[in-house]
Design a protein that fits this description.
Number of strands: 2
Helix content: over 70%
Order of helices and strands: HHHHHHHHHEEHHHHHHHHHHHHH
Strand content: under 5%
Low-confidence stretches: 228-233
Distance between the termini: 55 Å
Largest sheet: 2 strands, antiparallel
Structural class: mainly alpha
Number of domains: 1
Number of helices: 22
Strand order of the largest sheet: 1-2
Shape: globular
């Protein structure tokens, strides 16, 4: 591992890597700053670029730059026009827009940038430190342990999805079923293909992701149209003073710890981290009554927490092949297209590339601060760009990227089909993230479960209670964790809705 880490340092310091990260940061900030254009949509449209360049040390850092920039960029419209650019910026609205009303939009945007960059940096360091011991433990896992962890992950993803748990379970089940389409991994018999030869290898991940994430956003943007006469606040006011920033250091540290903890757990994601960071900042304050009325500490708490999620989501992705959220599902697709299969053996087989990517991710935070600070005035004006100018370009990128991935015309059919599913799910208020997770993990769970059955033979009881106690412990803990987390998430959603009603009033 140490040799791979040292080799990773060498490959991470390539000039072209940092050029592409810079491009990714700029594009991510642009996508995040556009109201209604989410990070997931931006990533799905741009993910084909990552494997067209051919080098994982260019393509993957480029997408990570888009990821980082998009999560931060969402704070720009949240602060200026009270419209979160991404779900991660929902809590930034509470105090960010109030500061804009007071003529302090520059302070709010700068606090958002510095809190985001600092928390992102330390969470990336945490990721780099954690990846080695976690990978060492996971190397000792066999099919039974991996199957149990994947089952636990599916339960966590279902109960933490947006909306009622039953909707999360439905979408999860749909994703698992879609993952079963194609050849059986053990018998090679075709199933659910309905005589279509193109489905023998199953659905391809890239057109599915672009269809589920990009096309619904495009459809929604077309439906809403441009908003004529919308008033946009300008980038005005004094700069953020050092004394004001120092007052929020404790909040940034607290939110970084919270966000990093949430990032490790698959399914939770940035919106929950942002709300928890904001609530924790308010509850710890000696003057909680000022929150929601233009408190810089509120912006710092929300933005530090949502950006701290970015790095730790890579831990389950790289060590177990389990994406932590919709964006890391897109990263999983990019890794696979580069010939890298995230899982227990990835670090042993391609350790220098993995550590190179992670070290580049840490160093990219310096670029994050510089690029973000220089471009804040520009992105403050991006919110005024008409959707009618952006939609045709986005559609072109979605279809071109889908076709270029494999040059297979059937992928266009897949894109449109999953796009219609995504649009229907959005209209019915179903979260598509569990469907994507079910699709990705369902295939792996089936394979590892089949291997577990073969290892167990005829004596399941002896196998579970003497040979595979780790698997048994995880399976016993799964329903308990699911119930406790489901109840906690329900209470959290209720409090969040009450908070939104109070803010609206």
């Amino acid at each position: 591992m140490l040799e791979s880490l040292l080799a990773g340092v060498e490959v991470a310091l390539r000039v072209d890597t940092f050029v592409w990260i810079s491009g990714g940061l700029l594009l991510g900030m642009l996508m995040g700053a556009l109201p209604g254009f989410t990070t997931s949509m931006g990533m799905s449209v741009l993910v084909p670029i990552s494997f067209l360049v051919g080098d994982p040390l260019i393509g993957i850092p480029f997408l990570i730059g888009v990821y980082k920039g998009g999560i931060y960029g969402g704070s720009v419209p949240a602060i200026l026009i009270s419209m979160p650019g991404t779900g991660a910026s929902i809590a930034t609205v509470f105090d960010g827009h109030e500061l804009t009303k007071q003529g302090k939009s520059r302070k709010a945007l700068e606090m958002s940038l510095f809190a985001s960059a600092i928390s992102d940096f330390f969470s990336d360091i945490f990721t780099l430190v954690m990846i080695i011991p976690v990978a060492a433990v996971v190397l000792g896992f066999g099919p039974p342990e991996i199957a149990a962890v994947m089952f636990l992950s599916l339960v966590v993803i279902a109960v933490t999805a947006t909306g009622p748990v039953i909707k999360g379970l439905i979408m999860l089940g749909l994703g698992v079923w879609v993952g079963f389409v194609g050849a059986d991994p053990f018998s090679a018999m075709a199933r659910y293909t309905f005589g279509t030869a193109e489905l023998y290898d199953g659905f391809h991940l890239i057109p599915m992701l672009i269809g589920l994430f990009a096309l619904p956003e495009i459809f929604n943007a077309v439906k809403e149209g441009d908003t004529p006469g919308a008033r946009v606040a300008s980038f005005v006011g004094e700069r953020l003073r050092m004394a004001e920033f120092r007052k929020s250091i404790r909040t940034i540290v607290r939110s970084t710890v919270l966000g990093s903890s949430i990032g490790i757990v698959p399914g939770l994601g940035q919106p929950i981290a942002a709300m928890m960071g904001y609530i924790a900042a308010k509850n710890s304050s000696s003057h909680p009554e000022t929150y929601g009325k233009g408190e810089l500490d509120g912006v710092a708490g929300a933005e530090a927490a949502n950006n701290a999620v970015n790095g730790p989501t890579m831990v389950p992705l790289l060590t177990l092949g389990i994406p932590g959220d919709a964006v890391t599902a897109l990263l999983l697709g990019a890794f696979m297209m580069q010939g890298l299969r995230p899982g227990p053996t990835l670090l042993s087989s391609s350790g220098d590339i993995v550590f190179g990517i992670l070290i580049a991710m840490v160093l990219a935070n310096a670029l994050f601060v510089v690029i973000g600070y220089l471009t804040i005035p520009f992105f403050a004006r991006v919110v005024t760009i008409k959707k009618s100018l952006l939609i045709p370009v986005t559609i072109m990128l979605a279809f071109a990227g889908t076709y270029l991935a494999r040059a297979n015309p059937f992928d266009i059919v897949t894109l449109i089909g999953f796009g219609l599913i995504g649009i229907a799910a959005r209209e019915a208020k179903f979260d598509v993230a569990p469907m994507v997770m079910g699709f990705i993990l369902g295939r792996e769970l089936e394979y590892t479960f089949g291997q577990t059955l073969a290892l167990a033979g005829d004596n399941w009881v002896r196998f579970a209670l003497t040979e595979r106690l780790g698997m048994t412990a995880v399976l016993v803990a799964t329903p308990i964790i699911g119930i406790l987390l489901g109840r906690r998430m329900h209470r959290f959603r209720v409090r969040a809705l009450e908070r939104e009603r109070i803010e609206a009033a």
